[in-house]
Amino acid sequence: MSVAEDAGSRSESVGHAEYDVVIVGAGPAGLAAGIYARRVGLSCVVLEKGVPGGQVITSPKIENYPGFPEIEGMKLMEAMAEHARAYVEIKEGEEVVRLVKTGDRFELTTPSGRLTSRAVILSTGSYHRKLEVPGEDKLAGKGVSYCATCDGFFFKGRDVVVVGGGNTALTDSLYLNSIGCNVAIVHRRDVFRADKHLQDSVAERDVDVIYNTVVEEIVGDDVVNAVKLRNVNTDAVDTKQVGAVFIAVGEVPTSQLAAELGIRMDPGGFVVVDMSHRTNVPLVYAAGDVAGGIRQIVAAVHGGAVAALSCFEDLAKPYFSRSTR
Asked: What is the mean pLDDT of residues 171-199?
């Protein structure tokens, strides 16, 4: 029986809802984890509350994923999902609303029932904190970006603004400056929250900074062409012509399930993992954006693969003494 035939037959018999590992989330990390888990012989299923792809499906163009010089995010994730389905069942519309440890098993509750497993891989992702201003949603992917390393290349030589005052905002500004964008940082306070070395680098590069200012509106019909800025001290409103707005006001990890299990998280709520993507709770792993780090597709795929292989190793030879507690 081929791998694809085996995956198909398993799809018809999942009523028993008992697996070696359940993977929560079908973004790049979850799909990679599913492929690798099945290839080493683990019984598994991928549960996805929406459709496979995660945040990547909203990216109009991707140019930094090896093997694809240029591809739409939706098409890339469709290809990944098709590949994964040859190995593992992906259950869409199955949000895990409860995750508990019962004896030597994990119990996961979804809208359609319960599953049990020996291990769990969390690839639940994160979402960008928005400005919640007019034009932001309308122009997302059309000059509004939440990832400078993903989209900055398209705006070389153009005027852009980065919104935020933390490490991500300043790092993004330095990156955009280094590839030839004309950058201005818009920050609502009069001082940055970022690390001093980043502040020093911004000063050395002579990056323009607009303090005490917030974005009131992102302007454009089909693409971004300006932002309306309001000074929080004087309420004066000014319009700045730009080709792109890079929003870096924080990411929110989808880590509620991890919190329910008592998994260690950093101050930002991201799951703490070791190099093997193990958490401090034995037989629970995390990969992709929920585990922080560089939030890139290639890093998520790597993390998912490593988590699956660590899971296989631990189920074959329990590792409790090697947990990250």
From this structure: 94
> Residue 60: what residue type?
P
Tokens of 199: 């502040």
Task: Return d(Cα 121, Cα 116) in angstroms, integer.
Answer: 13
**What's the order of all strands across the beta sheet hosting 159-163?**
144-145, 244-247, 159-163, 182-186, 208-210
Catalytic residue among 44, 150, 181, 311: 150
pLDDT value, residue 318: 64
Distance (Å, whole) CA 288 – CA 30: 8
Query: In angstroms, rounded to a whole number, what is the distance separating the alpha carbons of residues 186 and 211?
Result: 6
Furthest CA-CA distance within the chain: 72
Mean pLDDT of the chain: 90
Instruction: Report d(CA 185, CA 207) in Å as an integer.
Output: 8
Active-site residue (options: 6, 44, 137, 147) = 147
- Confirm whether 147 is a catalytic residue: yes
Catalytic residue among 20, 44, 151, 181: 151
Q: What CA–CA distance (Å, rounded) separates 243 from 180?
A: 13
pLDDT above 70: percentage of residues in the chain? 92
150 labelled catalytic: yes
Q: What is the pLDDT of residues 253-298, one digit of tens each?
A: 999 999 999 999 999 899 999 999 999 999 999 999 999 988 889 9
Burial annotation 89-103 (CB, 10 A radius, 16+ → b, else e): bbbeebebeebebee
Residue 64's contacts (CB-CB under 8 Å, 6 or more residues apart) are 149, 150, 296, 298
Given a contact cutoff of 8 angstroms between Cβ atoms, the answer to whether 174 and 148 are in contact is no
The model's pTM: 0.75
127 three-class SS: strand
